[in-house]
Amino acid sequence: MVKRNIIKIDESLCNGCGSCVIACSEGAIEMVDGKARVVRESFCDGLGACIGECPTGALTIERRDAEAFDEKAAVEHLQQSKAAGSALAENRAKQEGESGPVAPCVLPIHQPQRSSMGAGEGPGQHSNKLGPSSQLSSWPIQMRLAHTDAPYFKDASLLIAADCSAFACPVISEFIRKRVVLIGCPKLDQSETFISKLAEILNSNEIRDIAVLRMEVPCCYHIINLVEQAMKRSGKNIPLDHFICMIDGKVVNDTGMVRR
Question: Between 3.10.180.10, 3.30.70.1020, 3.40.50.11540, 3.30.70.20, what CATH number should domain 2-69 receive?
Answer without folding.
Answer: 3.30.70.20
